[in-house]
Amino acid sequence: MIQNKERFLANVASRLSRTEVLTERPSRNWNYRPQDKTLTDKTQDELVDILRDQCRLIHTELIETDSSGLPEVLAETVAAYGGGPLAIWQDHRYDAFGLREQLATWPNQGIDVHEWDPSIGHDNIGIVEQANIGITFSDITLAESGTVVLFSGEGKGRTVSLLPHKYIALVPKSTIVPRMTQAAQRISKQVQDGEAIASCINFITGPSNSADIEMNLVVGVHGPVKAAYIVIEDR
Amino acid sequence: MAMKIGNEKFKDNVNKQMEDTFMRGAVAGAQERLRTRRLDAAEELGNWEEWRSHGEEIRQHTLDHLDYYLQELSENLQKRGGHVFFAATAEEANDYVKGIVKEKRAKKILKAKSMVTEEIGLNGVLEQEGCDVIETDLGEYILQLDDHDPPSHIVTPALHKNKEQIKDVFTEKLDYKLTSKPEELALHAREKLRQEFLQADIGITGCNFAIAESGSVGLVTNEGNAGMVSDLPDTQICVMGMERIVPTFEEFEVLVGLLTRSAVGQKLTSYITALTGPRTAEEADGPSEFHLVIVDNGRSGILGTEFQSVLQCIRCAACINVCPVYRHIGGHSYNSIYPGPIGAVLTPLLGGYDDFKELPYASTLCAACTDACPVKIPLHQLLHRHRQVIVEREGRAPISEKMAMKAFGIGASSNPLYAAGSKMASSVMKPFTKDETISKGPGPLKAWTEIRDFPAPNKERFRDWFKQHEKESGKL
């Protein structure tokens, strides 16, 4: 439902010296486009270098591995973060990257794994809130800022990256792009193609933090207090 | 709390704030850090001037076509199942939110930092309805606990408080027993607020930029509190100032990058979220109901005027962080939730000259604000324009300026008076003069010489010197 639109917009239009509300899309002819020449000449390996440097600034551990080493690296990282309970997405990429066996092993070691289950609705939240570590894949990864971009969806609860005490992002190397520009272009193209974009798109850059007390940086306020990215060589 | 934060006179506020040495030290230190971080972030990015110019053209284009983009935004959000309410006034906005609260029988409302809800005084309205309204940004949470102490900065609202003061507030209000270490204080707030998040009926956020092409609302935080507020309660309400909108995700990206670099020197903050309507049928978290309240509240009165460029503002506070006047008088002196140069321009436009005519004079017109602005708002020129309007159109120049101008008018329009006055100046001021300067001036000079010296009038008048000079060069 939209309320009060006509009166409100008629006033705005008249302030802009128009007799009627503009209905034709204005053309955007920008004189400047600095984003087209920012980090656009980098190779995928150079982008990993940039991501690695940036992770140091945002208090985020960056670990590099390949598909075969991934289960072990993930198990080590989980152990270093104090083990379970774990919360993960319902996401075919855990299978594609050979993690299913590891996911099955953890419960035998006393580490609970909650896989997001759309059928139980809001009850997911209570379980995820009790998790020690949330683990998700990154849908797009921004090298410049050290950001993982997560699209919410049926098996991809938005709270998995936010409520647990620590957070691990699995970053296939192919998801790494130079900066937010490329992610924005991809999302904008989806919109123009008439596809429905995710109801929640999260750009997450390291653990949560605040400088509200005497400008001292405190890492870990409402969201995770620690974050790690595991970059996976996948091509 | 509305936009105006107190009833004291500007001068009284300034005098009181100037006594607060902790605040002045904190402000100076924070300005220094934030300013340096911004400059480093700009240098690292490269082509900063080109980015600023792009930011400026995006903001100008959007304002020039604001009716189109607001229409597009509202229709796209509706397609995704969201509700849109256009509010011409603060009252309309508050009534709409109140209506939702009543319908949901909501008791607990969680908020993420939002300047526009401060401006319209939403918290007070909801508290009167018997709701428990909880701010979740750490800075705002501290201020709210401290009996609603007003914010003094638009990005770090509790800047004027030190950690001991914060510890005292926590001890008194939250039964806190630990030290004044920021980590311990923040952890305590985390634990307290986590419980509140899980019990909240309604979440209210502001909006950094709405995205017209998709009907999305963009939120920028470091703490992750906006995510909590939008993910957990079943009903979400976003309140946005009507100018806070961009055409597409491409412009969103540019402005977010300018905002985070200019505000805190980060390439991006920890959490940037684009929300598009309520959760879908397949999803298990996120709100089932999503409302967007688009607020005018005086903004359209600025559109199409010589002050339109102030609506380009992206609320980064870069101008505040470089202002020499803010550095000395602090945020509370401005008596508005919008302090510093942007506040001195915006507050009188939204709140009128009756209450805020002094603010455009709280500036040295040094233009540091204009140079710092990531979207190139000519702030010092707008401040100067305010002064012209106050004097010419409103006929209410400050009394001291009026008296000085009147005295000068009388003195300068009469030949004998001017001659007598300029001859006497040197000897009249002699008792106050030491080493060619006046450091304790009388009457109207007092306010000036309290903080700096004033040059003594020259013993020889220009007219006398000129006559003598011509005589000596043989022209007479």
UniProtKB/TrEMBL annotation, chain A:
Protein name per Swiss-Prot or TrEMBL: Lactate utilization protein C
Q: Where does the record place the LUD domain?
A: 53-232
Q: Tell me the classification of the organism that encodes this protein.
A: Bacteria, Bacillati, Bacillota, Bacilli, Bacillales
Recorded hits in Gene3D superfamilies, A to Z, give: NagB/RpiA/CoA transferase-like (3.40.50.10420)
- Gene name, Swiss-Prot/TrEMBL: lutC
What does the sequence similarity comment in the record state about its family?
Belongs to the LutC/YkgG family.
Q: Organism's domain of life? A: Bacteria
Which InterPro entries did the record assign?
Answer: FTHF_cligase-like_sf, LUD_dom, LutC, NagB/RpiA_transferase-like
- Task performed by this protein: Is involved in L-lactate degradation and allows cells to grow with lactate as the sole carbon source.
- Any one Gene Ontology biological process term? lactate metabolic process
Supply the Pfam families for this chain.
LUD_dom
TrEMBL record, chain B:
Q: Which residues form the 4Fe-4S ferredoxin-type domain?
A: 310-377
Supply the InterPro entries for this chain.
Answer: 4Fe4S_Fe-S-bd, 4Fe4S_Fe_S_CS, FTHF_cligase-like_sf, Helical_ferredxn, LUD_dom, LutB, LutB/LldF, LutB_C
Q: Please list the GO biological process terms of this entry.
A: lactate metabolic process
* Binding site residues for [4Fe-4S] cluster 2: C323, C366, C369
The Lactate utilization protein B C-terminal domain covers which part of the protein? 385-471
Q: Which residues bind [4Fe-4S] cluster 1?
A: C313, C316, C319, C373
Q: Which domain of life is it from?
A: Bacteria
Q: Which UniProt keywords apply?
A: 4Fe-4S, Electron transport, Iron, Iron-sulfur, Metal-binding, Repeat, Transport
Give any Pfam family that matches.
Fer4_8
Asked if the keyword Electron transport belongs to this entry, the reply reads yes
Q: Molecular function (GO) terms listed?
A: 4 iron, 4 sulfur cluster binding; metal ion binding
Residue ranges annotated for the LUD domain, each copy included: 70-295
Q: Which PANTHER family match?
A: LACTATE UTILIZATION PROTEIN B
Known function: Is involved in L-lactate degradation and allows cells to grow with lactate as the sole carbon source. Has probably a role as an electron transporter during oxidation of L-lactate.
The entry sums up its family as follows: Belongs to the LutB/YkgF family.
What protein am I looking at? Lactate utilization protein B
Question: What gene codes for this chain?
Answer: lutB
